[in-house]
Amino acid sequence: MTLEGLEPGTRARIVAVDWGRLAPEDGVRLRALGLDAGARVAVAHRGVFGGRDPLAIMIGRMTVALRRSHAAAMEVEYL
């Protein structure tokens, strides 16, 4: 399952990231925010309009806005 598919309030751990699907500068930014394999995350909210973009992701005590296309590159497992 990917991070994009999690429902709000669901906790998970990132098990793999397909960095090849992301632009190099996006990968650098996401790693700097701690969004890499092993990170524990939860979906806090989803956008309300048609594409349901962006996702609000909780990582630790930080909330990060993440595009659905970025979340789709992250494989997760439920905690």
Task: Give a verbal description of the structure.
Residues 1-78 form the Ferrous iron transporter FeoA-like domain. Keywords: Iron. This is FeoA domain protein. Pfam families: FeoA. With 79 residues, the protein is an alpha+beta fold. 16% of the residues lie in helices and 37% in strands. It contains two helices and five strands. The chain is globular and about 30 Å long.
What's this entry about, in short?
The protein has helices at residues 24-32, 68-71, and strands at 11-17, 40-46, 55-59, 62-66, 74-78.
Please give the count of helices. 2
Written as H for each helix and E for each strand, in order along the chain, the element string is EHEEEHE
Residue-averaged pLDDT, rounded? Answer: 93
% residues in beta strands: 35-45%
Looking at CATH, the homologous superfamily is Ferrous iron transport protein A (FeoA)
By CATH, the topology is SH3 type barrels
CATH class: Mainly Beta
The percentage helix is 10-25%
Overall 3D shape: globular
Distance between the termini: 13 Å
Q: Architecture, according to CATH? A: Roll
**Stretches where pLDDT falls below 50 for ≥5 residues?**
none
Q: Cα-atom Rg, whole angstroms?
A: 11 Å
Q: Which structural class best describes the helix and strand composition? A: alpha+beta
The tally of structural domains comes to: 1
Biggest sheet overview: 5 strands, antiparallel
Query: Order of strands across the widest beta sheet?
Result: 4-3-2-1-5
How many strand units?
A: 5
Describe the SSE topology.
Elements lengths: L10 E7 L6 H9 L7 E7 L8 E5 L2 E5 L1 H4 L2 E5 L1
Antiparallel strand pairs: 1-2, 1-5, 2-3, 3-4
